[in-house]
Specification:
542 residues; alpha/beta; Aldehyde Dehydrogenase, Chain A, domain 1; Aldehyde Dehydrogenase, Chain A, domain 2; seven-stranded mixed sheet; 25 strands; globular
């Protein structure tokens, strides 16, 4: 069977599914968490379709129906928000005034319960968003590791804050205090990991949270609802489901959201920010679009450049904000680069998420293959060509990767973030061309440089680090390790996320200060010795 036939016969019959990946019936989620109680919903539901299609006996295929989730209304959303507001209680609630050590214990309990759901969550990641079993497992395990790293980082931060400082006759203890109620909204491509990279630090620092799962990747969080309910005091964690305009808009316009933690598009982020009646009181932590370029220099190691560019452009089907979205290749190398890239793309295994070693899988976004086809067709009509055999072939939710060359200004692929398996390639003669592309871009997340000459690379590093927030030498763009700062310039981000930065971004520096005299020394000594305050404390967390 040739590749074209393999694509057309991609989807299995239900009877052909491996027993290990079968779902035991529909998952009709009717519960949502508000004020520590798992409430039941008897209103309308949103049906959840899998990107995986199942073939009928007549050969036709349709998306598998996984289940449904609640379409809550404004009333339920505002009830969830009010539960978080009451739990915070203007900073006087149980959670924000709890000691750091006690909050850590609650998060550890949640982590223990979460680990018990590993197999269930991994299976749902495959079915709901088409992520391979390998990558789904990595996402779960990386999230657990992130939580532990966050706990370790907080312990270190607290140890530093437990010290007193003396300056100009003033005694002071400086710590970080929570900001209030956080609205947390994660993306579909990493619905567990990237949601938790804002949710966990917001929680552990004493904020209360309302979180709305992405439209794709909802059901996989259902197994964790009981863990949230059991692990945190009432109102500390609350969930909402449904249409963003219906449930998110009213929460923002209420003015009761103190922090917006959102990973998605700048267009939606701008709408949400504009809805808040007191924007100067709203802190935003945003992960937005990117159009990360690779720049392949004349002296680049071609084998390495092709390997990293392929990985950067097609990992999880190119559905990563950190993915490589456009490749600039010197014209002395471009033909050989294209030949190797095309061959490497053709060697990538494709199929179902649970297939061994699979690299390319169906796409979860409705209408995405058709939209990607339009991008490719527009480029071809403007003089580009699809370089790799079968590039751009579509079967229902599956889009076979397309290497498109030459991409030029005026084509949508020049500026639009495709967020899918389309690889635009541009040739250049003068380095000023890709440099200016980065300068003029609306985005400023990362760049990858491929070359050997230290002087040439240094010449690019100095101007480009003032345009993007991470420059990768001879490697793809990426987020990790989580100890490194993750952010962007321009329309790509607001706020910085790393294990330690996230703890800071959801808090504000606050201090207790007193003149250095005998009375104040006695007061501070008594408070710390008798552990009368959670904030003013010299306790050392091991």
């Amino acid at each position: 069977m040739n590749r074209t036939e393999q694509i057309q016969n991609l989807f299995p019959k239900e009877s052909e599914l491996p027993s290990a990946v079968r779902l035991e019936g529909r998952i009709d989620q009717s519960r949502y968490l508000v004020g520590g109680t798992l409430r039941s919903w008897d209103g309308p539901f949103e049906e959840v379709l899998s990107p995986v299609c199942l073939r009928a006996e007549d050969g036709s295929a349709s998306q598998a129906v996984l289940g449904a989730y609640p379409k809550l209304t404004e009333k339920e959303a505002l009830e969830a928000l009010q539960a978080a507001v009451q739990a915070y209680d203007n900073g006087q609630g149980l959670w924000p005034t709890m000691s750091v050590a006690d909050r850590i214990r609650h998060v550890q309990q949640f982590t223990m319960l979460m680990k018990e759901k590993r197999e269930e969550v991994v299976k749902l990641l495959m079915w709901e968003i088409g992520k391979s079993h390998t990558d789904s497992t990595k996402e779960f395990d990386r999230t657990i590791e992130y939580i532990q790293d966050t706990i370790d980082a907080l312990k270190e931060l607290d140890r530093v804050g437990s010290r007193f400082q003396l300056a100009q006759g003033i005694i002071g203890q400086i710590r970080r205090a929570p900001l209030g109620v956080v609205l947390c909204m994660g993306p579909f491509n990493y619905p567990l990991n990237e949601t938790f990279t804002t949710l966990i630090p917001a929680l552990i620092m004493g904020n209360t949270v309302v979180f709305k799962p992405p439209k794709l990747g909802v059901l996989l969080l259902e197994p964790l609802l009981e863990a949230f309910a059991e692990s945190f005091p009432p109102g500390v964690v609350n969930t909402v489901y449904g249409e963003g305009q219906v449930v998110v808009g009213p929460m923002m316009t209420s003015g009761k959201i103190d922090v917006l933690a959102f990973i998605g598009s700048s267009r939606v982020a701008d709408i949400l920010k504009a809805q808040h009646p007191r924007p100067h009181r709203l802190r935003c932590v945003l992960g937005l679009e990117a159009k990360n370029p690779a720049i392949v220099l004349p002296d680049a190691d071609l084998e390495l450049a092709v390997s990293e560019c392929l990985l950067g452009a097609l990992s999880y089907n190119g559905q990563r904000c950190t993915g490589l979205k456009i490749l600039w290749v010197h014209d002395s190398l471009v033909e050989e680069f294209l030949r190797r890239l095309s061959a490497a793309a053709s060697d990538l295994p494709f199929g179902m998420p649970w297939d061994p070693n699979v690299k390319l899988t169906p796409l979860p976004e409705p209408g995405k293959p058709a939209w990607l086809s339009q991008l490719v067709e527009e480029a071809v009509s403007g003089g580009a060509r699809v370089v790799n055999p079968d590039g751009g072939t579509v079967n229902q939710t599956f889009f076979y990767p397309a290497v498109v060359y030459p991409v030029r200004p005026g084509m949508k692929l020049w500026n639009v973030e495709q967020f899918g398996p389309v690889i635009p390639v541009v040739s250049y003669r003068d380095l000023e061309e890709p440099e200016q592309y980065v300068v003029q871009s609306n985005y400023g997340q990362q760049v990858s440089l491929f070359g050997r000459d230290p002087k040439q690379l240094a010449r690019l590093i100095d101007p480009l680090v003032n345009q993007v927030c991470r420059l990768n030498l001879n490697s793809q763009c990426q987020r990790g390790p989580d100890s490194f700062p993750f952010t962007g310039r321009k329309d790509s981000a607001e706020g910085t996320l790393s294990v330690s930065d996230a703890l800071r971004v959801f808090t504000i520096r606050t201090l207790v200060a007193a003149k250095e005299n005998d009375l104040n020394k006695r007061i501070i000594t008594t408070i710390t010795r008798d552990r009368l305050s959670s904030f003013l404390s010299t306790d050392f967390i091991f």
